[in-house]
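With this grant's support, we have paired protein sequences with backbone structure tokens. One protein thus recorded is set out beneath this paragraph:

_____
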Amino acid sequence: MTKTIGILTGGGDVPGLNPAIKSVAMSAFDAGYKMVGIRRGWGGLLNYDLNDDAKHSLYIRNLIHDDVRTVDRSGGTFLHTSRTNPQKVKVDDIPDFLINSPLGKKIDNDGTTDFTAHILRVLEHLGIDVLVSIGGDDTLSFSVRLNKEGFPVVGIPKTMDNDVFGTDYCIGFSTAVTRSVDIITNMRTSVGSHERIGVVELFGRNSGETSLITAYLSYVDRAIISEVPFEIHKLANFLLEDKRNNPSNYSMMTISEGAIMEGGDIIERGEEDAYGHKKLGGVGEETAAMIKKLTGQNIMYQQLGYLMRSGAPDSLDRMVAMSFGNLAVQLIRRNETGKLVALHGGKYTTVPINMVLAGKKRVDVPSFYDIENYVPKVRDFMGVPMFLS
């Protein structure tokens, strides 16, 4: 029996999404399966109106070989993405055709609605037998819901923070770190030329692994991570001493966007997204301003932000993306759904999809971080995971 596989990408884009899509599609074609690309993540299914044929192409794309043949040569996702959460759609985000629909279930007094029933109806209408979702813990949380409702799903983890619970590695992490190390290495010439203190803010909401590994590989002087609140006076004194001890008279540090000063709060801005998250960013700038005030030194502050997720993937992310994609289709061929493809101990494997909600993946602070000196510190390399996670 010919199966039809649906595929989507959700949440923030990362390098490696297109190679993963291509890998799933090519493997599916080899197995004689059909592929349906869902555009704009869960938003594509939410906005799909069964009675409006004219707009179906905005959200659904039947894929053939030529559609994916060269997509792996670029970054991002050609299917586009969104942060839509069908379980929790705010009133202002409900499509017109779904207002007062019996396929929606209001979940609170402000009109927020769960449209899981509509998503299931659309998947049935499209003839999709199995859905492959590529995303972080937010996107994958709705895959968990679909699996609970009895719909076959396979999840592929991606996130620059490398923080999906249940896997040692997520697509996009290596490229994000590579970009960050390259930028910091280049930035040294300016920071050193002007004899300043460099402060570099990196992505990392709940996990400081990006800051930690980037600092470790680029040999910056100090690294602040999300897991450990920091004392600003202590940090400023460290950086001033580091600067004095450097023959070029400069020092540098990294900081996670989710880092917190002792006695302070996480810096957020804007409205909550569909998963309850506000945008982070600004702790690096605030830290830089306070360091300048405390030390009297000029600061060079850089928030890398979207530069970390832009462009084509590096070789490692290509390899993992392609392998995850192939493994996903192998699971489908064996009718083994409700799984998340994963890496454990350097080997490809799977875990139940609901594992993504079983905990939070964070830096193993006692093993990999010196909380007194704010630096990466590996206690013993024997048997340590490749990515120090």
